[in-house]
Amino acid sequence: MATFFGEVVVAPSRAGLDEEEEAREETPEDREIRRELEKKRCRRRGEIDVLWTWRSGGRAEEPLVCSRFIVAIGRNAAAFLSSFILDSVCWEVVGVVKLWNEWCRTSSTTNVLPTDSFCLFYRLISDPTVLLCQCSCYVAEDQQFQWLEKVFGSMQKEGLQVTILSTCPVADYKTQESTLTLASPFLKALKTKEFQEQVCCPLLEQPNIVRDLPAA
Amino acid sequence: MFVPCDRGGLSAASDFEGFTLLMPAVSVGNVGQLAIDLVISTLDMTKVGYFYTDCLVPMVGNNPYATAEENSTELSINAEVYSLPAKKLVVLQIRSPFIKNKYRPFCETLLSWVKSSKCARVVLLSSSHAYQRDDEQLLGTPLRYLLTPDLEKAVGGLMQELNWKEMEKVAAYPGINDTDKVLHIPGGGITKLLFTESCSKGIQMAVLLKFCSEGDNIPDAFLLVNYLNEWLQLIKSEVSTSNNSTDPSSQWKIPSSWRLLFGNGLPPALF
Questions:
Q1: What family classification does the UniProt entry report for this protein (chain A) (predicted)?
Q2: What is the rounded average pLDDT for all residues in chain A?
């Protein structure tokens, strides 16, 4: 779809539904093949595993007591944490998420390279209620809810403060001026009304939105 | 599925017994959703809760109906419920597409919620691909309606008075056999599924839809919301003194989030 000026904007099917009625035209063999492909995809891609390393058996039985949880989503945010926050003296790895989708696969190893896709959890040794998550892998839209439930399901949520770090391309930022003249990078924030502390940057203006795992 | 907002003493905020539930289908041109935005924005409806669901792509932003600095910082997500008890109206707005293979579970959960919250009826705003119209549909009004049998008994007569056109059924096997007719709403998203499920579950549902194409769908949204208004009378259509016609388009308030729908400003270096 072209905008008034002519720049091309991606407009995926807004009906939001694969026209599955069209599948009635398939032969039974086609339908069987499609179903098998779907099953294989679901089998490989379906389950997300959150493995907590300090527990025997790798799975947390009791909820983790957590006061602050910082989540860095995407390679840039993960790199920020690696460069400025994480070190092997103050932080220890306590968990890993194992998942597979068409874009990336993470493993259960905690010894990762910066170029790998991974999702690791760290705990501050001096204050074990401070947790950090580096998620450089892409979590597909049909896995985001499961990720959320499994990660937050392991935590005691009373008094928990969550900070989510993420990046978006400047070209996606909607503003009256052209994004070419904007000084970038720049920070914007969204906060719940329960967050009473001072925010370090302006709030994200309408009509900009955040999607995918940071939104979830 | 439905999570009420914590509004202090307003426990009645999530009591929808006897209310009309107005909601969009995510469909071609997003016309239903745009029309719902106009309703929520114009009637200044209060948010009373949201749907906690894994069926829709997650998204979050600041209040899309903000009118001033003070009310612009409330977070807004992909499926939220607004209410206006004075008009016995509850509105669901859906702001993102369905995740693959999740639209059926969503429809089932939604219809159970409709039954459990005892809504009197559901009005679904939707749209359908204009290019799929047949020769007859190309002429006349692009607006259509559908009523489930239970609602037909209640308001069928009113539709006749309003001179509304019912959505035509099409041949199930065109060219081969023209006697078997089925409902076909291409580009309508979950419209057909919700409608057929409501028919079988005895839920009173009306579908109001417009034939349209992708593009600037704001005029389509206005046409659809005015169509809805002919029936539900949500706002008064004042007679315009300049051309003596009843065109309530100017009385619908466009929300602030409709800014910049077609891209940012131009780089000055271009000229």
A1: Belongs to the PSMG1 family.
A2: 80
**What would the pLDDT profile of A135-165 be if each residue is shown by its tens digit?**
998 888 888 999 999 999 888 888 899 999 9
**What is the rounded distance in angstroms from the CA atom of residue A123 to the CA atom of residue A132?**
6
Q: Say yes or no to pLDDT of A70 above 90.
A: yes
Neighbours of B244 (CB within 10 A): 7
Contacts of A62 (CB under 8 A, 6+ apart): none
3-state secondary structure string across A17-66: CCCHHHHHHCCHHHHHHHHHHHHHHHHHHCCCEEEECCCHHHCCCCCEEC
Question: Which of A154, A181, A184 minimizes the C-alpha distance to A169?
Answer: A184
Structure tokens at A13: 């099917």
ipTM of the complex: 0.78
| Chain B nearest-CA residue for A3 | B262
- Average pLDDT value for chain B: 88
User: Left (φ > 0), alpha (ψ -120 to 50) or beta: where does B235 sit?
Assistant: beta
Residue A35 distance to chain B (closest CA, Å): 13
State the smallest CA–CA distance between residue A195 and chain B in angstroms.
11
* A62 vs A84: CA distance, rounded Å: 31
User: pLDDT tens-digit profile of A29-59?
Assistant: 777 776 776 666 666 666 788 888 765 544 5
Cβ pair A16:B101 closer than 8 A? no
> What is A116-179 written as a DSSP string?
S--EEEEEETTEEEEEEEEE-S---TTTHHHHHHHHHHTEE-TT-EEEEEE---GGG---SS-G
Which two three-digit tokens encode residue B124? 């679904």
pLDDT at residue B239, rounded to an integer: 52
Task: Return the residue of B nearest to A208 by Cα.
Answer: B61
Structure tokens that stand for B154 in this block:
């209640």
**Per-residue pLDDT, B14:** 63
